[in-house]
C-alpha cells in the first residue's frame, strides 16, 4: 500500500458519472486588467443567471486568489466565504451582477498557467483550469459567456495589447500608459480566454473566406523573429482554405491573431481568435528549422485553427469529453498534412508516433480510455491516448461510414451543436443519424482502454483460403475484463508465385472475439496483406514467414502495408537475435533483412521519402515493446549489430543513395527535396554504422556545408552518437553558431541526450549544469530530461543512475512547473516491463518522488498510479 501521508490534503477524485449541469450561467463577462508584471489588478463583472429551481449559492472557482472586494448588484457584500480557494457568494434572486477584484503577480507565475510573463511578454494559458488563477469564475467548459476585455499597460513596455474577438477601442491613459478594449461576440468557455501584452512585431496577411469576408491575419513575435514567421502565415492560409474545402467550415471573426512565446507548457492553444503558441511551432527558416520542424509548424497551426470549429464553436461539456475536440482535431490536422504532401509517408509517421507514445501508455499503469472515467488532475490527461488514439477512433468512424456519410455526420454535428458544449456521445450519435449505421458496439472504443491484439492465421487448401482471426483486449488498470471491439480491417491477398493481387482490397468489420473469413477460387498460395493503411489501431500477431514479409515488402500495393512488412521483418530478426543472446551477423534473419533493404533501395519506382522510412530499423523501445521482459543492453547490441551489418553489406548502395540525394541542389522546401534530404541522412547513418573510415569526415562535410538545418542536424546527430574525431568540433561549432537561438540550442541539448555513446549519462549530468540549461523553460527541460528518458540504453543503465538523475530533476521541476514535470514522469513508471533489479530501482525513485515535500497533485497522480 502506498504511503500518502505527506502528500497534500488527499486530492479529490473527479468522476465522469458525477457530472451535474452548472447551477449558474454567466452570459456576459467584462474584465478590466491593469497590467503589470509585478502586480496586475483584475476587475471582473459577471452577469450571473440561476439555472433551474435551486437555492444553492454562486460558487466561483479560484486558485491562489484573494478577493480585494466583492459586490453584488453594485453593493459591497461581506457574506462571501472562501472554501478550498473557491469564492462562495449567497445570492437571493435569479439574476445578479457580481463584481470582484484581485491582484496577481504574473512575473512570479512559474507554472505558466493563468497570466504569466515570458521574455517580457505578458500572456495567458487557461486550458484546462488556468482561468481560475486570473479571476473568480465558474471555470468549467459548459459555462459559455460573451467577453468584453479592457487592458491598460505601460505603453513603452507593452505597446501591443491583444485579446479574443475583435478590437473595439483604444486610447491613451496618462502616465505613459495606454489601453485597449476587445469584444468577442461568440459565447465561449473560460478556457478559451486569452490576452497578450508585449513589445511585438507582426507579420500580417489577409484571407477572404468562401462567403467573401476579409479576415485580417497576424502572426505576432519579437521583432528579431519576424523573418521566421512566413511559413506559419502561409500554413494558416492553407489551413483556412482546406477547412472550407474539406469540411465546409468558414472562419467567423474579422481578425485572427497568433502570438509566439518561448515559455509554454504544451504546443499551442486555440483561444478564440487569439491563438498562443510555443515559439517552436511558429518560428521556422531553413537555417534554424528542420523539415520535421516545418511540418510540425504547419500541422500545429492547422490544428489550432481547426479547433475554431472542433473545439470552440462546438466545445466540450466537461473534461472527460476532451477527446471530442482533440481526437477529432488531430484527425483533421493529420488529414490536412496528408493532403499537403505524401499521404503514405504521413500515415507511416503518424503510426510510428502512435506506437512510440500511445501504445506504451495503453500497456502501462497510466492506461485510460479515450473518454476517461476519473482523474485527479486534468492536465495529466492531455495524453497520446486522448489525442492520437482519439484521432484513430475518428479515422475508424470515417472508414466505416465512407467519406460522404462521414462528411454528412460532421455537418450534422456542427450544425446541431454549434454554440454548445457537447459530448463524445453527441458526436457518435450524429454519425449514426447521418449514416444510418449502428455504432452501438463501436462505442466501446470510448470506454475500454488497451490496445487490441489480433491474431491472424491464413491457411490454404484446394482453391480455398481461410483467414482465422482472434481478438483480445488486454486488461488495464481498473478494467480487468474486456468486450470485443469493432475493428475495421482492410486486407488483400497476393499470389506468392505471381506476385499479383488475388482479388480486390476488402474492408471487413470484425465484431466478435473470433471470426473466420473464407476466400474461394484461390489458385496459388496466398500471402496476407493485413490491416492495410493501419485501418485499426491494433497489434497484429501473425505467423507470416520472413519470406512472405519480404515478398510483401516488395509487392504490396498499399504503401503502409509495404512499410509494415519491412518493419515486421526487421522486428522478427531483432527479437530473434535478442532472444538467442547473440549479436552476430550469422543470423539467417539478417540475410532476409539485407535483401529486402537492397530491393527497396534498388526500386526506381519508389519515392525517396518512402524508401527512407522503409529502410529504417525499428526503435529500441519498440523492439522492447515486443518482449516479455525488456533487456535494453541486449536490444542495443542486437540493433547495432544489424545496423552495422546493413551498413557494411550494402555500403555501395548507401554511398550511391547518399550521392544522388546530395546532388539535389540548393535548399528548397518541396516534398521531393525533403524526401532526398531524409534519405541522405538515413544513408549517412548506415555509413557511420558500417564503420567506414571516411564516414566521420563525410558527416562533418555534410554538417559544415549544409545550407539548411535538416542536413546540419542530421549530420550532427550521426556524429553525436559516434566516436569520430569530428564529433566534439561539430558540437562546439553548432553551439557557437546558434548560442543566441533558444530553439536551436534545444536541439544541441537533445542531440547529446539522445546519443548512443557510453558516456551519455555523464554528459547529460554535465549539461544539466550548463549555464544555458534552465528547468524553468519547458522546451529546455524537455530537450534534456525528456530526450534522455527516451534514450533506452542510457536511461536504463543497470546502475540506476539514469533513473536517479531524472527523478532528481523532476523533483526540482515540480516545484517550478508541476504540469511539465508530471508529463515527463511516465518513462519511470514503466518498471513492470523490466528485470527485477531495474524495476526495483525505478520503483525506488517513484517512491522518492511521491514522498517529496510539497509534491504537486499533478506529480502525485502520475507517480502514485505508476506505483500502484
Ligand atoms: N488545446 C491545446 C492543448 C493545450 C492544453 C493545455 C495547455 O495548458 C498548458 C496548453 C495547450 C491543443 O490541443 O493544442
Ligand atoms: Zn488540440
TrEMBL record:
Location of the Peptidase M1 alanyl aminopeptidase C-terminal domain: 547-868
Any single biological process term in GO: proteolysis
Domain Peptidase M1 alanyl aminopeptidase Ig-like fold, chain residue ranges per copy: 450-542
E.C. numbers: 3.4.11.2
Reactions it catalyzes: Release of an N-terminal amino acid, Xaa-|-Yaa- from a peptide, amide or arylamide. Xaa is preferably Ala, but may be most amino acids including Pro (slow action). When a terminal hydrophobic residue is followed by a prolyl residue, the two may be released as an intact Xaa-Pro dipeptide
Every Peptidase M1 membrane alanine aminopeptidase domain range: 232-445
The protein's name: Aminopeptidase N
Record lineage: Bacteria, Pseudomonadati, Pseudomonadota, Alphaproteobacteria, Sphingomonadales
Amino acid at each position: 500500500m502506498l504511503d500518502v501521508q505527506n502528500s497534500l490534503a488527499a486530492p479529490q477524485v473527479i468522476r465522469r458519472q458525477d457530472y451535474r449541469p452548472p447551477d449558474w450561467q454567466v452570459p456576459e463577462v467584462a474584465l478590466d486588467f491593469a497590467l503589470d508584471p509585478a502586480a496586475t489588478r483584475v476587475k471582473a463583472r459577471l452577469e450571473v443567471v440561476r439555472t433551474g429551481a435551486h437555492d444553492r449559492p454562486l460558487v466561483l472557482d479560484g486558485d491562489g486568489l484573494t478577493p480585494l472586494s466583492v459586490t453584488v448588484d453594485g453593493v459591497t457584500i461581506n457574506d462571501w466565504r472562501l472554501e478550498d480557494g473557491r469564492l462562495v457568494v449567497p445570492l437571493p434572486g435569479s439574476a445578479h451582477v457580481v463584481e470582484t477584484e484581485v491582484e496577481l503577480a504574473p512575473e512570479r507565475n512559474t507554472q505558466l498557467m493563468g497570466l504569466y510573463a515570458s521574455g517580457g511578454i505578458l500572456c495567458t494559458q487557461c486550458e484546462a483550469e488556468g482561468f481560475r488563477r486570473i479571476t473568480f469564475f465558474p471555470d468549467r467548459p459548459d459555462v459559455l459567456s460573451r467577453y468584453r476585455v479592457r487592458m491598460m499597460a505601460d505603453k513603452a513596455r507593452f505597446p501591443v495589447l491583444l485579446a479574443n474577438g475583435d478590437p473595439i477601442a483604444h486610447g491613451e491613459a496618462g502616465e505613459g500608459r495606454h489601453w485597449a478594449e476587445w469584444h468577442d461576440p461568440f459565447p465561449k468557455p473560460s478556457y478559451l480566454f486569452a490576452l497578450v501584452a508585449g513589445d511585438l512585431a507582426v507579420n500580417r496577411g489577409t484571407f477572404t473566406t468562401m462567403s467573401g469576408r476579409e479576415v485580417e491575419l497576424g502572426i505576432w513575435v519579437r521583432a528579431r523573429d519576424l523573418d521566421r514567421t512566413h511559413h506559419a502565415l502561409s500554413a494558416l492560409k492553407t489551413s483556412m482554405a482546406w477547412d472550407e474545402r474539406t469540411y465546409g467550415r468558414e472562419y467567423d471573426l474579422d481578425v485572427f491573431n497568433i502570438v509566439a512565446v518561448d515559455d509554454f507548457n504544451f504546443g499551442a492553444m486555440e483561444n478564440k481568435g487569439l491563438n498562443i503558441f510555443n515559439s517552436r511551432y511558429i518560428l521556422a527558416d531553413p537555417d534554424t528549422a528542420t523539415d520535421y520542424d516545418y511540418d510540425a509548424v504547419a500541422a500545429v497551426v492547422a490544428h489550432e485553427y481547426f479547433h475554431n470549429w472542433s473545439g470552440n464553436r462546438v466545445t466540450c461539456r466537461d473534461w472527460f469529453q476532451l477527446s471530442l475536440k482533440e481526437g477529432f482535431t488531430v484527425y483533421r490536422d493529420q488529414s490536412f498534412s496528408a493532403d499537403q504532401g505524401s499521404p503514405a509517408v504521413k500515415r507511416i509517421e503518424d503510426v510510428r508516433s502512435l506506437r512510440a507514445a500511445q501504445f506504451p501508455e495503453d500497456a502501462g499503469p497510466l492506461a485510460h480510455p479515450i473518454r476517461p472515467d476519473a482523474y485527479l488532475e486534468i492536465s495529466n490527461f492531455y495524453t497520446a491516448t486522448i489525442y492520437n488514439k482519439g484521432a484513430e477512433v475518428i479515422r475508424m468512424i470515417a472508414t466505416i461510414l465512407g467519406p460522404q456519410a462521414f462528411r454528412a455526420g460532421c455537418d450534422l454535428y456542427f450544425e446541431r451543436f454549434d454554440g454548445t458544449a457537447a459530448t463524445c456521445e453527441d458526436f457518435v450519435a450524429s454519425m449514426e443519424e447521418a449514416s444510418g449505421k449502428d455504432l452501438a458496439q463501436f462505442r466501446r472504443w470510448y470506454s475500454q482502454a488497451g490496445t487490441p491484439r489480433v491474431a491472424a492465421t491464413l491457411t490454404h487448401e484446394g482453391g480455398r483460403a481461410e483467414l482465422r482471426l482472434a481478438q483480445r483486449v488486454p486488461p488495464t488498470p481498473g478494467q480487468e475484463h474486456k468486450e470485443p471491439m469493432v475493428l475495421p480491417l482492410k486486407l488483400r491477398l497476393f499470389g506468392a508465385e505471381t506476385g499479383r493481387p488475388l482479388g480486390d482490397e476488402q474492408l471487413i468489420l470484425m465484431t466478435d472475439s473470433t471470426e473466420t473469413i473464407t476466400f474461394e477460387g484461390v489458385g496459388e498460395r496466398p500471402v496476407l496483406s493485413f490491416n492495410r493503411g493501419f485501418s485499426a489501431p491494433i497489434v497484429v500477431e501473425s505467423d507470416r514467414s520472413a519470406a512472405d514479409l519480404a515478398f510483401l515488402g516488395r509487392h504490396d500495393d498499399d504503401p503502409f502495408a509495404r512499410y509494415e512488412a519491412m518493419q515486421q521483418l526487421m522486428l522478427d530478426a531483432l527479437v530473434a537475435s535478442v532472444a538467442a543472446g547473440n549479436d552476430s551477423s550469422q543470423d539467417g534473419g539478417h540475410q532476409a533483412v539485407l535483401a529486402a533493404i537492397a530491393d527497396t533501395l534498388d526500386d526506381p519506382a519508389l519515392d525517396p521519402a518512402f524508401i527512407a522510412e522503409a529502410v529504417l530499423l525499428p526503435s529500441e523501445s519498440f523492439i522492447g515493446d515486443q518482449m516479455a521482459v525488456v533487456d535494453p543492453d541486449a536490444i542495443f547490441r542486437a540493433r547495432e549489430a544489424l545496423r552495422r551489418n546493413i551498413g557494411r553489406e550494402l555500403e555501395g548502395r548507401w554511398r550511391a543513395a547518399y550521392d544522388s540525394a546530395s546532388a539535389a541542389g540548393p535548399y528548397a522546401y518541396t516534398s521531393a527535396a525533403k524526401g532526398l534530404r531524409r534519405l541522405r541522412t538515413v544513408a549517412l547513418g548506415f555509413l557511420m554504422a558500417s564503420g567506414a573510415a571516411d564516414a566521420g569526415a563525410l558527416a562533418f562535410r555534410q554538417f559544415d556545408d549544409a545550407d539548411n538545418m535538416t542536413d546540419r542536424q542530421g549530420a550532427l546527430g550521426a556524429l553525436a552518437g559516434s566516436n569520430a574525431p569530428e564529433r566534439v568540433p561539430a558540437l562546439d561549432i553548432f553551439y557557437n553558431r546558434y548560442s543566441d537561438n533558444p530553439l536551436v540550442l534545444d536541439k544541441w541539448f537533445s542531440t547529446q541526450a539522445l546519443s548512443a555513446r557510453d558516456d551519455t549519462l555523464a554528459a547529460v549530468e554535465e549539461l544539466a549544469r550548463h549555464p544555458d540549461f534552465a528547468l524553468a523553460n519547458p522546451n529546455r527541460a524537455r530537450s534534456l530530461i525528456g530526450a534522455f528518458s527516451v534514450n533506452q540504453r542510457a536511461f536504463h543503465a543497470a546502475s540506476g543512475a539514469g533513473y536517479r538523475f531524472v527523478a532528481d530533476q523532476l523533483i526540482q521541476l515540480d516545484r517550478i512547473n508541476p504540469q511539465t514535470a508530471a508529463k515527463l514522469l511516465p518513462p519511470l513508471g514503466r518498471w513492470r516491463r523490466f528485470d527485477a533489479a531495474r524495476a526495483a530501482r525505478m520503483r525506488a525513485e517513484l517512491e522518492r518522488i511521491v514522498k517529496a515535500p510539497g509534491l504537486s497533485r499533478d506529480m502525485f497522480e502520475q507517480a502514485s498510479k505508476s506505483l500502484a
